[in-house]
Design brief:
It is a single chain. With 330 residues, this protein is an all-alpha fold. Helix content is 76%, strand content 3%. The protein has eleven helices and three strands. The protein has helices at residues 10-24, 42-69, 76-105, 112-145, 150-153, 156-182, 199-205, 211-245, 249-278, 286-310, 313-329; strands at 29-32, 109-111, 191-192. A three-stranded mixed β-sheet has the order 2-1-3.
């Protein structure tokens, strides 16, 4: 093996020293400023968010339980819904417990490792949510546009494949973001104007060059958010065209009952994302970003069980069957 020697000019040595100094000055913890609420209102909001988080856990666990117990719900649509419910539980659990703990203990700190892990899992479960909603839209497209071939196309192997691909792509995207995030230095400031370690907020706080991070955000965001959203729009475009070819009140009502719940969830999920990441914001709108993030990470997962239970006859029927079985067994 041949080794070559290089002679660095003086400025390069200075840059190297500065880089070492930057790395040595990286923070060991971050301060989360939390929600823009008054101190005297902390207790009331803490109780409200605790109730929302518990509702999210119980509601989504109920969906998983009903789908597991009722054989009538062992279909591709409810298979995806059970995974969506599980992902929503994990998604809320990434941010809610730490936020509630900080509000109860009146502390703001989170360790560097804890912050990086929180950012990783938030990106992971958010990405899985996006892909699962796309898989559900494809399922509705096949059910309405190709009903005679539904059982052939939406086979068990395809459903498992779509879920596996959802997790793999989300894992890869969040891992790339996290690895690039660990290379950044944070020595100028460690205060985050947020209630959790959000990726964009961390990058803005960094003292390093974040060009690569911004490029990866654009690339991975296109794969994880934009492409699935376009696929959902295309699926519902075909569904709408199919309904309009044979317009009838019965057909429209059936399509609404089939797609209504999913459309509501998609509207909530992507509406919050668009408001948070695609609507231009100024420095004075930090409070708006935090409030939208609460809606995105806490409110939407909580509303999903209500949407699917209140607007879905199959879910209400399964709940009645489980309750009647429980009463008779008792």
């Amino acid at each position: 093996m041949i080794y070559h020697s290089f002679t660095f000019p003086f400025p390069a040595k200075e840059n190297l020293k500065n880089m070492r100094r930057d790395n040595q000055s990286s923070v060991s913890e971050f301060l989360l400023l939390g929600l823009p609420i008054q101190p005297e209102e902390q207790g009331m909001y803490c109780a409200l968010f605790l109730a929302m988080y518990l509702t999210t856990l119980l509601g989504n666990l109920l969906i998983i339980l009903l789908i597991r117990l009722d054989s009538c719900l062992h279909t591709p649509m409810y298979f995806f819904l059970s995974h969506l419910a599980l992902t929503d539980i994990c998604f809320s659990s990434v941010t809610a417990p730490k936020m509630l703990m900080n509000m109860l203990t009146q502390t703001q700190s989170i360790s560097y490792v804890g912050c990086i892990c929180q950012a990783y899992f938030f990106l992971l479960f958010g990405g899985v949510d996006s892909f699962l909603l796309t898989s559900m839209a494809y399922d509705r497209y096949v059910a309405i546009c190709h009903p005679l071939h539904y059982t052939t196309i939406m086979s068990q192997s395809l459903c498992f494949l779509l879920v596996i691909v959802s997790w793999v792509l989300s894992f890869a995207g969040s891992l790339v973001h996290t690895l690039l995030l660990t290379r950044l230095s944070f020595f100028r400031d460690n205060t985050l104007h947020h209630f959790f370690c959000e990726l964009a907020a961390l990058i803005k706080l960094s003292s390093s060059d974040t060009t690569i991070n911004q490029l990866v955000i654009l690339t991975v965001g296109t794969v994880v958010i934009s492409v699935p959203f376009v696929c959902i729009l295309v699926s519902y475009g075909h569904i709408g065209a199919t309904i309009l070819r044979r317009p009838s009140i019965k057909g429209i009502c059936k399509a609404l009952s089939t797609c209504g719940s999913h459309l509501s969830v998609v509207s909530l999920y992507y509406g919050a994302i668009i408001a948070l990441y695609f609507v231009p914001s100024s420095n004075s709108s930090k409070d708006k970003d935090v409030i939208v993030s609460v809606f995105y990470s806490l409110v939407t997962p909580m509303l999903n069980p209500f949407i699917y239970s209140l607007r879905n006859r199959d879910m209400k029927g399964a709940l009645e069957n489980v309750l009647s079985r429980g009463i008779f067994s008792a």
